[in-house]
Amino acid sequence: MSLDSAVSHTLAEISLESIKKSLSMMYRKAAKSHNAIHQFILVAPKLFPSPPLPRKGKEWHKNSAFLTYHWEAFHSAHRSFHEAVLGGYNAAFILLRATLELLIRGAFFECLAHKKFRDTSKWLDKEFHAAKLKRFIEDVIKLRPSIEQDLETISVAIYDKLEPVIDEPEFRVPVKTMVMQLEKWGILRGVKNPSQTIWDLYQILSKDVHVLPDRTDIGKALLYAPKDLFKTPKLLRKQLAEYLHALKEVMDIGIIVELNILRDNLVKYEQAKDYVGRLLRDREFRYLELKHTPKLIQMVTATHD
To answer: What are 28-43's pLDDT values in tens digits?
Structure first.
């Protein structure tokens, strides 16, 4: 098989015509959810206005532990959306859970890199894995105290310090514990009942990861469109609507997290404060009809006026 024929065969398997069919099912809903992904990736850099030399290009290092995961979450969300409009709902939901987990983990390790958060992390002491991880990073700092300032300056360095244990089972902090601690730290401010809201969403997305019968694509087809069982791909309006709702919810939470992680920049940079203040008047932002973010923006702008 030649390269050209292999490419043609692959494109036929992807069934690109399904994109138009899916988008035509509910174009406005799809546009809002998709555009929320772009709003999510846009907010963080807008909170880092270009500083004067010689600091230019280095301001983001302080929050680099979160921003590394932030970039990955953007691409994961996009891949998830593509799977959904192609009819791969199970894969779309699996990638969406990964996106939510990237946001949670990025925010958690970002906070853990900074002393002010480690000093107010009593919730971690209540859970075995979290307590072990916290003690490990504290012991590393005790052995070389200069590491504490290194982490304040370049937070992504925490991954180097935790590298010996981060994948060991006894150091794997449960997602629920991370969410609870993030709430205590104020990183989920703006979400009503944040721990319960995010945990409920995480559990819904986990059903696809655990491949429960009704959450496989064949199971969805049997439930909602048995006559279309042997069509390839099987485009299901109900499943697409469920997915688009979940996608926008994840992106909404993502914007909440990045605004809270980077909230010091609203005090530090007048441009960042002005940008956030203008969002509620921005036509494209209002079009998204986000549930949580507008409330946080109102709180933030009121605080910093």
So the answer is: 999 999 999 999 999 9
d(CA 20, CA 233): 13
Tally of residues, the chain: 305
133 with 173: CB under 8 angstroms? yes
pTM score of the predicted model: 0.90
Identify whether the C-beta of residue 47 lies closer than 8 Å to the C-beta of residue 266. Answer: yes
Which one, of 255, 100, 87, lies nearest residue 187 by Cα?
255
Whether the CA torsion 287, 292, 296, 298 is positive or negative: it is: positive
Contact call for residues 219 and 144 (beta carbons, < 8 A): no
Indicate the DSSP class of residue 51. P
- For tokens 């998709």, what's the residue? 34
Q: How far, in Å, CA of 84 to CA of 19, rounded?
A: 9
Locate the domains of the chain by residue range. Answer: 53-247, 263-305
How far apart are alpha carbons 257 and 272 in whole angstroms? 16
Burial of 209 (0-12, 13-18, 19+ CB in 10 A): middle
What does pLDDT average to over the chain? 90
Query: pLDDT tens for residues 255-294?
Result: 999 999 999 998 888 999 999 999 999 999 999 999 999 9
Give the integer Cα–Cα distance in Å for 59 and 271: 14
| Termini Cα distance of the chain | 65
Contacts of 1 (CB under 8 A, 6+ apart): 9
Confidence check: pLDDT of 164 > 60: yes
- Strand, coil or helix: 285: helix
